[in-house]
Specification:
Helices cover 12% and strands 41% of the residues. The chain is mainly beta. The chain has a domain at 4-110: Nucleic acid-binding proteins (OB fold (Dihydrolipoamide Acetyltransferase, E2P), Beta Barrel), CATH 2.40.50.
Length: 153
């Protein structure tokens, strides 16, 4: 099984590239802090290259920037090529299957959902709130009574 999940921050603004076949791609580097400090007491980070394709690449370029926090799931892939000096080079990278945007709207300039856009079109001082002392499920319906025989497990 080849499956990887990462959560970290993008190290530079993503750029969209179009390859010969017409597909679009972007490569980002995700900085991930290690859970422990080194002997000097400093926290270190790993910098993982991630390749993103097609519509997902377009969305990352459109909605993310340097410092944006992302969650990536995908697979690890190793490839090699011959460098200009004649040496063989190996590259290990993550091929993204999904990318989740984890930064807040304020951290990602330009990103906002339709609900946020509609909300911000009105007066910002008129924020609708919900009283948390009131039971949000009081008008939800009647109580459902189940016996152990009704459960499938």
């Amino acid at each position: 099984m080849n499956n990887v999940s990462l959560v970290g921050r993008i190290t530079k603004d993503p750029e969209l590239r179009t390859i010969a076949s017409g597909s679009v791609t972007t490569t980002i580097t995700v900085a991930i802090n290690r859970r422990f400090a080194n002997q000097a007491g400093e926290r270190e980070a790993d910098f993982i290259p991630v390749v993103i394709w097609n519509k997902q690449a377009e969305n990352v370029v459109k909605y993310c920037k340097k410092g944006s926090q992302v969650g990536v799931t995908g697979r690890i892939q190793t490839r090699n090529y011959d460098a200009q000096d004649g040496t063989k080079r190996y590259v290990t990278e993550v091929i993204a299957e999904t990318v989740s945007f984890l930064s807040s709207k304020n951290e990602n300039s330009g990103f906002s959902s339709n609900a946020e856009q509609n909300y911000n079109n009105g007066d910002d001082n008129q924020i609708e709130t919900t009283d948390i002392t009131e039971d949000p499920f009081k008008n939800f319906g009647s109580e459902v009574v189940l016996s152990d025989d009704d459960l499938p497990f």
